[in-house]
Amino acid sequence: MRLGELLPGADLAPSLRDLEISGLSADSRAIKPGYLFFAIPGHKGDGLDFASDAAARGAVAVVAQRVAASAPPLILVPDARRALALAAARFHPRQPTTIALVTGTSGKTSVVAFLRQIWQALGHEAASLGTIGLVDKAGARYGALTTPGPVELHEILDAGAGRGITHLAMEASSLGVEQRRLDGVKATLAAFTNFSRDHLDHHPDLEAYFQAKMRLFEALLRPGQPVVVDADSDAAPRVLSVLRARGLEPFTVGAKGETIALLEMRPRALSTALRLRHENQEYEIELPLAGAFQTSNALVAAGLAIASGDAPARVFSTLSRLRGAPGRLELVGEKNGAPIFVDYAHKPDALEKVLQVLRPLAQGRLIVVFGCGGDRDQGKRPLMGAIATREADVVIVTDDNPRSEDAAAIRAAILAGAREVDPAKASEIADRENAIRSAVAGLGLGDVLVVAGKGHETGQIVGGTTYPFSDQDVVAKALGLNRKDVA
Ligand SMILES: CC(=O)N[C@H]1[C@@H](OP(=O)(O)OP(=O)(O)OC[C@H]2O[C@@H](n3ccc(=O)[nH]c3=O)[C@H](O)[C@@H]2O)O[C@H](CO)[C@@H](O)[C@@H]1O[C@H](C)C(=O)N[C@@H](C)C(=O)N[C@H](CCC(=O)O)C(=O)O
Ligand SMILES: Nc1ncnc2c1ncn2[C@@H]1O[C@H](COP(=O)(O)OP(=O)(O)OP(=O)(O)O)[C@@H](O)[C@H]1O
Ligand SMILES: N[C@H](CCC[C@H](N)C(=O)O)C(=O)O
Ligand SMILES: [Mg+2]
């Protein structure tokens, strides 16, 4: 593709306009002969420092947002990240015709998984993309990020559309939105789940985190497009005013929802009976998922399917067959009649919600095994320690992904919060496998165990190395089962 077609807004000399470009990258290490290099001012480094490396590998031009001496010609743009996203969308032009972007602190992975299942059940060629990778009827392919960088993202969209995917449900992380990863995506609708503390290692404060999410509605959607909002979220009124200001069409769902009103919710052991109203029609649904938050996520997904044009009665009829996303309140086994769950709660609000959901199932003790990741928000550690100790009966603090941090110091910060609530409830077992084994070994009738924080993850990051590790596999081993025998 010609440079002039990739950067239509840029002021290009005629000699540059017709330059043939064979690929794009913001990473000099991925540059091949004939590529266009985008120099991004990043969080750790400045891409311009790698322009000569890119040139040595064959870059024919550099796109940057400030002037610098550069051996291949330098093209100045106001926003290099956005220019990259728009160029990637032109270079890989095909996209599914229906694309739903889902944002919010918690529930994104679950909502996109549910929406994919609803669309598939209704006969659409559907896929989901996010923390657990790209999932379609061919299976799951994991990626490194929840919202991939723009070049990888548009490769995925183009190849997916080429395979016949018409419907894509996609997670929009706050970092992805802020870093313009999604600026070339032709989104047709969106959703907002909820808002609580997360990513404070990156955003300066909660307000900046909130505003990063709002850019999805302000910059990535067009007026008139539908946005499904969980009306029961504390943040819903603020989000709705952002939507109104932008001329977007709100669809509210939940107990306070108008589009889909949740009239009644009766929790059973591992499912939830729902009574809903949509346009004066009532529906009774047996949702095969436990927990009020899974009901919220399912209603957001149903709202998205309806907003995308599917018939409401058909959409509601699919809900009784939904399966949870891997590692989200996943029942992985039982010991002496005590159920064992693996969950991805790695932030305070999620941990509180999951323990509150499990509390009624515990005739005996509610036991939680968890830790916190290194190189992430340090402030959440004592908060999660305190929440676990308030909501559970037994708290075993262990390692999550320590990354570059001292794992003992992470555990100590969690325990400090726990001990302020009740020093007798919390203990520490550094090795995650030993912690899980010990918790499983102690289970008795009526107890409930949840292993939280790593969900679907298949590795544990210690220093710069990722060691194979799966909470599900460790539970299975502790139960003396092969993983495939487990629920
Ligand atoms: C903090 C953060 O989000 N960083 C992301 C960001 O990096 P950055 O732009 O700040 O890059 P940088 O490291 O400062 O480097 C600057 C530039 O120099 C380039 N470079 C660097 C070295 C070199 O030799 N040559 C070279 O050209 C880099 O490619 C980059 O373009 O853009 C990169 C390309 O898109 C991402 O890979 C990178 O994700 C890092 C690895 C990451 O861990 N991000 C996590 C925190 C993240 O984004 N998480 C969210 C939320 C998860 C959720 O809640 O579910 C996600 O969407 O996954
Ligand atoms: N609607 C919700 N409200 C509160 N907590 C939730 C909700 N949905 C899920 N959770 C909790 O958050 C965890 C993560 O859920 P999920 O993966 O669906 O969210 P996410 O937004 O994709 O999170 P992440 O940003 O970590 O990828 C779950 O394991 C559960 O503990
Ligand atoms: N997307 C989240 C995942 C955290 C999962 C948890 N296991 C950890 O490593 O902290 C993050 O990068 O903050
Ligand atoms: Mg996710």
Automatic annotation (TrEMBL):
<dbReference type="GO" id="GO:0008360">
    <property type="term" value="P:regulation of cell shape"/>
</dbReference>
<dbReference type="InterPro" id="IPR036615">
    <property type="entry name" value="Mur_ligase_C_dom_sf"/>
</dbReference>
<dbReference type="InterPro" id="IPR004101">
    <property type="entry name" value="Mur_ligase_C"/>
</dbReference>
<dbReference type="InterPro" id="IPR000713">
    <property type="entry name" value="Mur_ligase_N"/>
</dbReference>
<feature type="binding site">
    <location>
        <position position="453"/>
    </location>
    <ligand>
        <name>meso-2,6-diaminopimelate</name>
    </ligand>
</feature>
<dbReference type="InterPro" id="IPR013221">
    <property type="entry name" value="Mur_ligase_cen"/>
</dbReference>
<comment type="function">
    <text>Catalyzes the addition of meso-diaminopimelic acid to the nucleotide precursor UDP-N-acetylmuramoyl-L-alanyl-D-glutamate (UMAG) in the biosynthesis of bacterial cell-wall peptidoglycan.</text>
</comment>
<dbReference type="InterPro" id="IPR036565">
    <property type="entry name" value="Mur-like_cat_sf"/>
</dbReference>
<keyword id="KW-0963">Cytoplasm</keyword>
<feature type="modified residue" description="N6-carboxylysine">
    <location>
        <position position="213"/>
    </location>
</feature>
<comment type="similarity">
    <text>Belongs to the MurCDEF family. MurE subfamily.</text>
</comment>
<feature type="domain" description="Mur ligase central">
    <location>
        <begin position="102"/>
        <end position="305"/>
    </location>
</feature>
<feature type="binding site">
    <location>
        <position position="457"/>
    </location>
    <ligand>
        <name>meso-2,6-diaminopimelate</name>
    </ligand>
</feature>
<feature type="domain" description="Mur ligase C-terminal">
    <location>
        <begin position="327"/>
        <end position="455"/>
    </location>
</feature>
<keyword id="KW-0547">Nucleotide-binding</keyword>
<dbReference type="GO" id="GO:0008765">
    <property type="term" value="F:UDP-N-acetylmuramoylalanyl-D-glutamate-2,6-diaminopimelate ligase activity"/>
</dbReference>
<keyword id="KW-0436">Ligase</keyword>
<dbReference type="Pfam" id="PF01225">
    <property type="entry name" value="Mur_ligase"/>
</dbReference>
<dbReference type="GO" id="GO:0051301">
    <property type="term" value="P:cell division"/>
</dbReference>
<keyword id="KW-0573">Peptidoglycan synthesis</keyword>
<dbReference type="GO" id="GO:0005524">
    <property type="term" value="F:ATP binding"/>
</dbReference>
<dbReference type="GO" id="GO:0071555">
    <property type="term" value="P:cell wall organization"/>
</dbReference>
<comment type="pathway">
    <text>Cell wall biogenesis; peptidoglycan biosynthesis.</text>
</comment>
<feature type="binding site">
    <location>
        <position position="28"/>
    </location>
    <ligand>
        <name>UDP-N-acetyl-alpha-D-muramoyl-L-alanyl-D-glutamate</name>
    </ligand>
</feature>
<feature type="binding site">
    <location>
        <position position="179"/>
    </location>
    <ligand>
        <name>UDP-N-acetyl-alpha-D-muramoyl-L-alanyl-D-glutamate</name>
    </ligand>
</feature>
<protein>
    <recommendedName>
        <fullName>UDP-N-acetylmuramoyl-L-alanyl-D-glutamate--2,6-diaminopimelate ligase</fullName>
        <ecNumber>6.3.2.13</ecNumber>
    </recommendedName>
</protein>
<dbReference type="Pfam" id="PF08245">
    <property type="entry name" value="Mur_ligase_M"/>
</dbReference>
<dbReference type="InterPro" id="IPR005761">
    <property type="entry name" value="UDP-N-AcMur-Glu-dNH2Pim_ligase"/>
</dbReference>
<feature type="binding site">
    <location>
        <begin position="146"/>
        <end position="147"/>
    </location>
    <ligand>
        <name>UDP-N-acetyl-alpha-D-muramoyl-L-alanyl-D-glutamate</name>
    </ligand>
</feature>
<feature type="binding site">
    <location>
        <begin position="400"/>
        <end position="403"/>
    </location>
    <ligand>
        <name>meso-2,6-diaminopimelate</name>
    </ligand>
</feature>
<keyword id="KW-0067">ATP-binding</keyword>
<keyword id="KW-0961">Cell wall biogenesis/degradation</keyword>
<feature type="binding site">
    <location>
        <begin position="104"/>
        <end position="110"/>
    </location>
    <ligand>
        <name>ATP</name>
    </ligand>
</feature>
<dbReference type="InterPro" id="IPR035911">
    <property type="entry name" value="MurE/MurF_N"/>
</dbReference>
<feature type="binding site">
    <location>
        <position position="376"/>
    </location>
    <ligand>
        <name>meso-2,6-diaminopimelate</name>
    </ligand>
</feature>
<feature type="domain" description="Mur ligase N-terminal catalytic">
    <location>
        <begin position="20"/>
        <end position="89"/>
    </location>
</feature>
<keyword id="KW-0133">Cell shape</keyword>
<feature type="short sequence motif" description="Meso-diaminopimelate recognition motif">
    <location>
        <begin position="400"/>
        <end position="403"/>
    </location>
</feature>
<feature type="binding site">
    <location>
        <position position="181"/>
    </location>
    <ligand>
        <name>UDP-N-acetyl-alpha-D-muramoyl-L-alanyl-D-glutamate</name>
    </ligand>
</feature>
<dbReference type="GO" id="GO:0009252">
    <property type="term" value="P:peptidoglycan biosynthetic process"/>
</dbReference>
<keyword id="KW-0460">Magnesium</keyword>
<feature type="binding site">
    <location>
        <position position="173"/>
    </location>
    <ligand>
        <name>UDP-N-acetyl-alpha-D-muramoyl-L-alanyl-D-glutamate</name>
    </ligand>
</feature>
